Amino acid sequence: MKREEEAEEVSAMEREEEAEEVSAMEREEEAEEVSAMEREEEAEEVSAMETEEEAEVSEREEEAEVSAMEREEETEVSAMEREEEAD
Questions:
Q1: How far apart are CA 9 and CA 14, in angstroms?
Q2: Cα–Cα distance between 62 and 54 in angstroms, integer?
Q3: How crowded is residue 69: how many other Cβ atoms within 10 Å of its Cβ?
Q4: How do residues 22-59 score in pLDDT, each as one tens digit?
């Protein structure tokens, strides 16, 4: 009888230890998955922000080019007008 009780206790302890190990492994896997998802989301957000910043920079560069061309054109027109007045 005593051996049977001891065997049941040992078996119960082994099942409990196994359950705790499985539970710990599941928590660890879940934590790793969550961490990986968070890193991926962060990378996507950073990438989106960088793309947006690049687009804004590109737009500002384009505007600066147009503005420079307009100033150059105005300078040329002014020079032509001065030439005409000089004639």
A1: 8
A2: 12
A3: 10
A4: 999 999 999 999 999 999 999 999 999 999 999 999 99
Question: Which amino acid is present at 32?
Answer: E
Distance of CA 6 to the CA centre of its chain: 56
pTM recorded for the entire structure: 0.53
Cα–Cα distance for residue pair 62/60, rounded to 1 Å: 5
Give 81's DSSP letter. H
Q: What token pair was written down for 77?
A: 């027109």
Size of the chain, expressed as the number of residues it contains? 87
Question: 37 is written with which tokens?
Answer: 């998802």
Q: Is 79 exposed, middle or buried (0-12, 13-18, 19+ CB in 10 A)?
A: exposed
